Structure formats: structure tokens, C-alpha cells
Amino acid sequence: MKILIFLTIMVILFTGHWLLAEEANGNIRWETFVIPSVLCLTALGFFFGIGLAIASKVFEVKVDAKAAEINEVLPKVQCGKCGFAGCLPYAEAVASGKAPANLCIPGGNAVAKKIGEILGIAVGEVTAPVATILCTRKKEVKKNQDYTGIQDCRAAMTLGSNIYECAFACLGMGTCSTVCPFQAIVMDDNAMPKVIESKCTGCGVCVENCPVGIIRLTPRDHDVHILCASTELPKIKAKVHKKGACIACKKCVKTCPVQAISVVNNVAGIDYTKCTNCEQCISVCPTTAIFHIRPQKKKDAVSTSVNSGA
User: Fold this and answer.
1) What is the C-alpha to C-alpha distance for residues 185 and 158, in angstroms, rounded to an integer?
2) pLDDT attached to residue 304
């Protein structure tokens, strides 16, 4: 179609140029070809109009009305947490019955309910995870150098800037805060990120954009976390961290009554499907790397809206 239009335009231009040249030489009068030219262009316009109308029907991409309606209520984060490439593919899968209506993590129960109303079905509730900062850099981790480049953690990491003694320390440039589509992360006075849990949807965009890998999605009902993601040798961590680093001593592993903790690559991790929040691991950790990150909840059973690394 594009080639045909191009050739037609070229023919019209060539013909016009030839007619003007002939008219200038006195071989043809202007009045004799104005009307035919106008009629020719009108006919071509009519022809191409019909062609485009037919093409629009032949090549029309049919969109399911329900899929379009579902797509409108989705948050458009395109995070892929539902297992699909984006919001529209997920909406199409839901509309065709190939996917459940409650897989949208950022949308949560509110979006799931709207999708249920569109489809006329009952949708079970889903609890979205929450971003958790696994870093205690503000506990006496020293700086190696000041960074004066682009204020972006990814850029600093790409340039190989060794800003802190701990290679897994939060770089503090706020990339996670910048990329968060829900403004759920803010930076505190120590250039450490804080997660506003009431705004966090568990979309995972911050996790994907943290070059150090210290942000994880964790269950909202789990308050005990090992706030260290460093896989460096224990003796190195003990040297650069006065407090807060996991030195892989395995005391927490031996103490946990439900075997929910294991040490992999020099750092302990919690299996949240087993953890009961009993806090016995906190009491035996020699470096205070394990924390109850919601102290107010612990104190009076009222969840606070903010959590951050200790």
C-alpha cells in the first residue's frame, strides 16, 4: 500500500511537471488540463479512500470488549508480576478464562474486585508482598570515597565506584525512590531508603533497579528479617561492619525451632513459609543483624506505615 501511494505521487508530480513545461512552451493551454487534473486527483482520492477502508477491515486487530475494559482498571505498571508480558496480555488472558482475576500484585484487592465485577464473578483476596530494605549501612559502615558522578545507583555501580567499605551497602542515591511508580520509597537523613508500606504495592520495580540487590519483596505479616545481603567472606564483613552484618555464624540456624533459617553464600536467609516470628533468632545474633522491623507493631499490635533497614 505504501509503495502504491509513493508511485502514484511520483506519477502526479512527473505529469504536473511535464504539463507545466508544455504549457510554458506554448504546446498546450493551461485551461485544457486543469479540469482533467482535478478530476484525476479526485478519482485517485476516492480510490485510495475505498482501499484504506477495505484494508482497515481486513487487517483489523479485534480486541475483546471485556479485555479492553479489564485493561482500563489495571494500574499499567507493566511489571510482569502476573506472569504475563504486560497489562493488556494479562487482561486478554483473564477475559478468555486462561488466568485468574487476582494476579495483579500492584493493583491488589481493589483491582481484583473491579475485574470480578466486570466478569460477574467472585474473586478471592490476595495479599501483596512489601519491599524490605536488607541493609544496615548506617551502622558505622565507613565511606571509601565521595562519589561526584551522576546521582544514580546504577550509574555509580556501572562505573565501578567503590563508595563504601561494604560492597553490598546501599549507595544512597535514591534510584529506588525515583523509579517507584507509587512514590512508596523516600530517602531519610542518612541517605537510606524507607518504604511507606501503605503505598507499596509489591510491584518489584525497586527490586529490579537496585544494583546492589539489597531490596527484597517479603510477606507483610512477617516482621523478623535478616537485614544483610552481603555474600562477602565473614571476616571481611566483621571488619567493615562493626554491627549489623551477618557473619554466617549459624547461631540463628541452630536456634530456630522450625528450621526456617539457612546460610547460603555466607549470608543467612529466612524461609518465610516456615517462620513464625518467634524472634528467638534475634536474641542469639551476635552482630544484631536480625531485626523486628516493625517495633510499634510489636509494642501494641498496631502496624506502622513505614519500615526501613535498622
Assistant:
1) 23
2) 46
Residues 242 and 161 grouped into a single domain: yes
For residue 13 the three cell numbers come to 508530480
Q: What is the domain-level CATH number for residue 262?
A: 3.30.70.20
CB 219 within 8 A of CB 129: yes
Structural domain boundaries enclosing 301: 130-308
pLDDT in tens, 56-85: 777 777 778 899 999 999 998 888 888 898
Buried b (16+ CB within 10 A) or exposed e, 134-171: bbbbbbebeeeeebeeeebbbbbbeeebebbbbebbbb
Tally of structural domains, the chain: 3
What grid cell was written down for 146? 565521595
- Both 180 and 262 in a single domain? yes
Predicted local distance difference test score (pLDDT) of residue 158: 85
Residue 185 parent element (H or E): strand 185-187
124 within some domain = no
CA 42, CA 275: separation in Å to the nearest integer? Answer: 77
What confidence score (pLDDT) does residue 15 get? 67
78 and 158 together in one domain: no
pLDDT digits (tens, 9 = 90+) for 79-95: 888 889 899 999 999 99
Contacts 24+ apart (CB under 8 A), 109-116: 111/73, 111/74, 111/75, 114/73, 115/70, 115/73
What tens digit of pLDDT does each residue of 177-215 get? Answer: 999 999 999 999 989 999 999 999 999 999 999 999 999
Any domain includes 125? no
